[in-house]
Design a protein that fits this description.
Oligomer: single chain
Shape: rod-shaped
Mean pLDDT: 81
Number of strands: 12
CATH superfamily of the largest domain: Histidine kinase-like ATPase, C-terminal domain
Strand content: 15-25%
CATH topology of the largest domain: Heat Shock Protein 90
Low-confidence stretches: none
CATH architecture of the largest domain: 2-Layer Sandwich
Largest sheet: 5 strands, antiparallel
Strand order of the largest sheet: 2-1-5-4-3
Radius of gyration: 54 Å
Number of helices: 13
Length: 446
């Protein structure tokens, strides 16, 4: 990159210098030609005056001059020539400058003179006796002018090239060095931060670096959560398996009295159902973790879903003698039926179980601006402030012994949180120990 910048700057400088040199030489050439023409015209005035006063005698007394003088009669024959033998010269009637002088009184032309083998500048003027007086001078070519005045321009050109080399080298170094010294771990530090043009790029690099660090920490956190989840899931599954295995072994060996067999069978059934529920919750949570992309969304009546869930839980409600009420209005949301059902089911189930025998649970659905609000309130044991921030963690239980007695898997609220997230819903909780809890889920309205 540094070489490319260097060569680019040097090439541009060289082209500019060459262009400037060529333009200067052309201007000088035009200026020199104009001066030569002006000198010819002044000389023509003098010669014309001399011929008018003395006639042919003027040429006999003419001293050496730098200009070529030709006197031509009206038929084009040479009457006088100071640089060549007039008798050996061709008729000049058809020469361009002579024709212009005959027609207009004055003429100019430039051409190669075969007589003198040089590039010539000619002017001609018609006299009162109809003869033509012509003057010419050797016209310097642009190359001869270059050779004559080349020392100074070449010196300037070489010095300018040397300066451009130094400038290109220093400028390319100043441009590239800050990029080379860029600290990718801290892009906004160091010399590069003083370059205003680079600042948006550095900000972008800093943002990407911070995002990578954030993602790395998030990945580490997710990895720890998964490890903890795997360990907890294994532990939670082992417990019912040990119970089932132990009871089955007792039954197999005939160590249980016949009248006790139904009780042991019930315990095996309860643990089996608990293990099945745990497996179902783990699978459900796994789907929610993946964003539930394969699950169908549709327009749902949140109030109707709450009513159906309460009806499905009638056996648990009767078993706990729970006073449960459904209030509110029919409000529609856009959602996944299975996930919305999981939210309501887990919240209502928890409210019933933790309210104890004869508890009171109120489920309400209402419209609040652009939102649909689901609220589940109970008068149960409540949650302490130290536990409120952790209740949505997987397998976290406020009262572990009571949770297991009630058949909880420890994944219910985690499922609620993840199911709400894929619906862009918010979950809020208010609770005080001994006074009950209020769980609120705020959905965007369809």
């Amino acid at each position: 990159m540094k070489k490319r910048i260097f060569y680019s700057i040097f090439l541009v400088t060289t082209v500019v210098l060459l262009a400037a040199f060529i333009i200067i030489m052309m201007v000088m050439y035009n200026q020199f030609t104009t001066e030569q023409l002006e000198q010819l015209r002044n000389e023509m005035k003098l010669v014309k005056r001399g011929v008018a006063l003395e006639g042919e005698e003027y040429f006999k007394g003419l001293t050496t001059t730098d200009f070529r003088i030709t006197w031509i009669d009206s038929d084009g024959e040479i009457l006088y020539e100071n640089k060549a033998d007039p008798y050996s010269m061709q008729n000049h009637l058809e020469r361009e400058e002579v024709q212009k002088a005959i027609k207009e009184g004055y003429g100019e032309s430039k051409r190669y003179s075969s007589t003198l083998s040089e590039q010539q500048l000619f002017i001609a003027e018609k006299l009162e006796d109809d003869t033509i007086l012509r003057l010419s001078t050797t016209m310097a070519s642009i190359w001869s002018l270059f050779l004559r005045f080349s020392v100074f321009p070449i010196t300037i050109f070489v010095l300018a090239l040397a300066a451009s080399l130094a400038f290109a080298s220093r400028l390319s170094k100043n441009i590239v060095d800050p990029l080379i010294s860029l600290d990718l771990d801290d892009p906004l530090s160091g010399r590069t931060s003083s370059y205003e043009e680079l600042y948006p790029l550095l900000q972008r690099l800093q943002f990407q670096h911070d995002q990578i660090e954030k993602d790395r920490k998030e990945l580490e956190k997710t990895s720890l959560i998964r490890q903890e989840f795997t360990a907890n899931a294994s532990h939670e599954l082992k417990t019912p398996l040990h119970v089932i295995s132990g009871y089955a072994e007792l039954l197999e060996n005939g160590l249980i009295k016949e009248e006790e067999i139904p009780g042991f069978a019930k315990k095996i059934g309860d643990e089996t159902r608990r293990m099945t529920k745990l497996a179902d919750d783990i699978l459900n949570l796994s789907k929610l973790d993946s964003g539930a992309t394969d699950m169908r969304r549709e327009k749902l009546d949140l109030y109707a879903f709450a009513a159906q869930t309460i009806d499905d839980l009638s056996s648990i409600i009767d078993e706990n003698d729970t006073d449960i009420r459904l209030e509110g209005d029919h409000v529609s949301i856009e959602g996944i039926p299975e996930s919305v059902n999981s939210i309501i089911f887990n919240l209502v189930t928890n409210a019933i179980k933790y309210s104890g025998q004869g508890g009171k649970v109120t489920v309400s659905v209402r419209e609040d601006g652009d939102n649909a609000v689901l609220e589940v309130e109970d008068n149960g044991i409540g949650i302490g402030e130290e536990d409120l921030e952790r209740i949505f963690e997987r397998f976290y239980r406020v009262d572990k012994s009571r949770s297991k007695e009630l058949g909880g898997t420890g994944l219910g609220l985690s499922i609620v949180k993840h199911a709400a997230r894929i619906h862009d819903a918010q979950v809020k909780v208010k609770s005080r120990l001994g006074e009950g809890s209020v769980f609120t889920v705020i959905f965007p309205k369809a």
